Amino acid sequence: HQSQLERAKTSIGNYKQVVLKTLRKKDSLLKKYETILYGDALPEKGKIPRSSVIDVLKAEVKDIGDENRVLNRERDFLKKEIEELESNMLVLEEKEINDTKEFKPNSETRVAVTTEFSNGLESFLVTYSDLITLILVIFVLLYSVSKVDGGKFTEVFSSFQEKKFQLQHQNVRLDTKEFEMLSRVRELVKDNVDPESLVRSDVRTILIRLKSSDLFAPGSAHLKEDAEELI
């Protein structure tokens, strides 16, 4: 806008010079026609008719008036443009001043902000240090878990399996019922009876379940040859 304002002022100065030059030229022509009209500077060969001089003067005056009106319109237009540019310059200057005021806080505001931040700085640092410590512990734990030595792990696990425990023997007295039950268990062990086949056992009865494949052939209802011996 500043450059446009300077160009507009220069244009007005140039137009003023043109107007002054044109007016001087027309003034000289008027003086010349006046001398011709009154005969003071008329050549000796003859005078120009007065009517023709008047017509020429009227035409010249009309042209001067037209040129003056055109120059006045251009001057008014340039003045309006200069006024608009000056108003824009003022608005821009005010905006720059306001922006500088907003971006430059005063000393009281800076002191208040600094005081508020320094008051809560201690608690903030404590919380921050605790958070960083927890994150560090988590990363160390993940790192230690991610690297497991297979040989050492197998060695430790096998030590639990191969470790021998010493049992202490103690003499226990059995009553009559417990002794009878122990005798029956020994007999079952001698007869190679599968413990899973024993569904229910008590003092009086023993229930034994036999597989059908041991008694019957597939798709047959007749007993096998060795089924009787098994029964």
UniProtKB/TrEMBL annotation:
Domain called Motility protein B-like N-terminal: residue spans: 122-162
InterPro entries: MotB-like_N_dom (IPR025713)
Annotated localization: Membrane
GO terms for cellular component: membrane
Region forming the signal peptide: none
Transmembrane segments: 125-145
Keywords: Coiled coil, Membrane, Transmembrane, Transmembrane helix
Coiled coil: 54-95
Presence of the UniProt keyword Membrane in the record: yes
Presence of the UniProt keyword Membrane in the record: yes
Protein name: Motility protein B-like N-terminal domain-containing protein
Species this chain originates from: marine sediment metagenome
Upper classification of the organism: unclassified sequences, metagenomes, ecological metagenomes
